[in-house]
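Worked example 3 (structure in, sequence out).
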């Protein structure tokens, strides 16, 4: 894969100017990312899109990124245009090598929010440390929501539409697909899942399904049907913005207080027209398992968003419904993929178990 990366880089950089190509762990989408360091000390992110992503789709994504950048959203990384002598790709930002589409973009400094490791048990951990972590978490949630609002504002020039929200119809469709599968999921043989942690996580998921699925599925269908009859403002949104996709760095003020500031955003693969509420639902879901109070979490996210852009009550209500429905659908998706479809993933079983545990905790938190 390094050889392929080195070859495609020649469309943007001279081979003699490349000092290092380092592969970076990427997500479940099938994309691959490399950190490129040049002899001049510049850093770039080389991305290979998943195999079924077309060049025309990447061009659409790049159009959104360029528009956001042009309209003042400096959080979006700068794309590098090709400098190849090949007239077919000159001044393009996406390259199709016959199998994959590639892009080269400015490296985003900083790191995403990460929960402190460990923290001790209930008898030894420091309550003041827990309170400080909670404060930092809410600061990150609020500033991340402000960043999302800045992005939304910067791409509004691409058009707004009054319509039933696509995020609702997509969840209606998926919920109707999952309902007939649920009995088979609950009756499936978990013993064939070799990894003990993953097997345990799936068992916990199935216990939630047995206790609540029939009730929540019926309730969600009714809620989604009502929401589908509403017309809300839609526009280009991110649709997959979670804790790993917004980067932060520490900023030290004159009063010695350290705050976190947003340094940039990554991964625009899912951008499409939808309700802004869907981004807020996805963003808060990254943090809910560790939040002490759901109401306070929503306050931080919504207040942060409204610092940079307006958000009416209709969008706020929609965001809360989408977050709850999505948590159950995501949990059921993992159970279906693993127990019925026998899908294989690039992540190891431990990481998948953590994903399942995450959605169980979101469900438990929102159920309170």
């Amino acid at each position: 894969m390094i050889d392929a990366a080195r070859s495609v880089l020649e469309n943007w950089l001279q081979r003699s100017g490349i000092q290092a190509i380092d592969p970076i762990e990427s997500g479940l989408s099938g994309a691959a990312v490399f950190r490129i360091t040049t002899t001049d000390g510049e850093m770039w992110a080389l991305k290979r899109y998943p195999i079924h992503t077309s060049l025309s789709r990447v061009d659409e994504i790049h159009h959104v990124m360029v528009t956001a950048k042009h309209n003042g959203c400096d959080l979006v990384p700068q794309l590098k245009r090709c400098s190849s002598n090949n007239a077919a790709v000159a001044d393009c930002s996406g390259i199709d090598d016959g199998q994959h589409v590639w892009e080269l973009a400015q490296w985003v400094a900083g790191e995403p929010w990460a929960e402190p490791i460990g923290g001790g048990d209930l008898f030894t951990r420091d309550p003041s440390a827990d309170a400080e972590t909670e404060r930092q978490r809410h600061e990150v949630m609020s500033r991340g929501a402000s960043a999302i609002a800045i992005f939304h504002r910067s791409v509004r020039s691409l058009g707004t539409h009054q319509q039933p929200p696509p995020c609702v119809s997509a969840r209606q469709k998926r919920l109707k697909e999952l309902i007939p599968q649920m009995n088979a999921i609950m009756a499936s043989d978990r013993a064939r899942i070799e990894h003990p942690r993953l097997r345990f996580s799936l068992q916990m998921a199935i216990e939630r399904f047995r206790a609540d699925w029939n009730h929540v599925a019926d309730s969600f269908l009714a809620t989604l049907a009502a929401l589908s009859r509403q017309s809300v403002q839609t526009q280009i949104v991110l649709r997959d913005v979670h804790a790993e996709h917004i980067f932060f760095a520490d900023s030290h003020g004159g009063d010695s207080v350290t705050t976190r500031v947003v340094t940039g955003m990554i991964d625009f693969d899912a951008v499409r027209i939808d309700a802004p509420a869907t981004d807020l639902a996805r963003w808060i879901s990254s943090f809910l398992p560790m939040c002490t109070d759901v109401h306070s979490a929503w306050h931080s996210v919504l207040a942060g968003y409204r610092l940079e852009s307006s958000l009416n009550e209709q969008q706020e209500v929609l965001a809360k419904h989408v977050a709850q429905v999505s948590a159950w659908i995501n949990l059921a998706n993992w159970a279906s993929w693993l127990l019925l479809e026998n899908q294989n993933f690039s992540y190891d079983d431990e990481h998948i178990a953590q994903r399942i545990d995450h959605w169980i905790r979101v469900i438990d938190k929102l159920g309170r």
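Notes: The chain has ten helices and ten strands. The longest helix spans residues 196-228.
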